[in-house]
Design brief:
This protein has eight helices and eight strands, in the order H-H-H-E-E-H-E-H-E-E-E-E-E-H-H-H.
Length: 195
């Protein structure tokens, strides 16, 4: 592998076969073969079809890099649930290298090596309450809790309520964001957050 070309890939958070074709100045079908070969050799890690990262880059990636990758693996999506609650220091009970997101598309999961990206689908009218932070989208702390309560109410998520330190939540903001959610979610939040 040409080291200069490999260094071009090292600068990228993730890449596709089209990127490899451009950098190596080869045809796209040849780039797919090259990606497959380097994947078998452990140089590339395929997270999903035509979405790769360099294995050597993983050890230097920080939490925010993985958040950006999570946003791009399935778009549109935003970091939420326990991952976001941990980011805001409302909980410390989160699996390492486990990134949870909310999506308008299908619920799915991408597992590779020692890390996993999990996506939970919610109704489009509940797809709000997130902000752009650096290079990724993340739920506000209060919305991350509401997303979790919503999925709990549907029996699609398990949440350790005792691990949450809700004193860091803005109760006024929580009440505002709660408005479009079903009554069963409001009831869960009222009981658990004592509001």
């Amino acid at each position: 592998m040409n080291k200069q070309r490999l260094s071009s890939l090292k600068e990228r958070l993730f890449f596709t076969a089209r990127d490899v074709a451009y950098i190596y100045n080869i045809a796209l079908p040849s780039a797919h073969v090259l990606c497959s070969r380097y994947m078998k050799d452990g140089v590339f890690i395929r997270l999903k079809k035509d979405f790769y990262v360099l294995d050597s880059n993983l050890e230097r990636y920080g939490e925010k890099d993985f958040f950006s990758i999570a946003n791009m693996l399935q778009a549109p999506s935003y970091i939420s649930l326990m991952t976001a609650l941990c980011f805001y220091e409302i909980t410390t009970q989160v699996q390492p290298n486990w990134y949870e997101s909310i999506s308008q598309r299908r619920s799915t999961q991408f597992d590779r090596n020692e890390f996993a990206f999990k996506y939970h689908r919610i109704k489009s009218e509940l797809y709000f309450g997130f902000v752009r932070s650096d290079t990724f989208f993340i739920a506000e702390a209060e919305k991350a809790l509401l997303d979790a309560a919503y999925l709990v109410s549907l029996n699609r998520y398990s949440l350790d309520w005792n691990s949450l330190d809700t004193k860091f939540l803005d109760i006024s903001r929580l009440k505002d964001l709660m408005t479009p959610f079903p009554d069963r979610v409001k009831k869960i939040i009222a009981e658990r957050c004592r509001i």
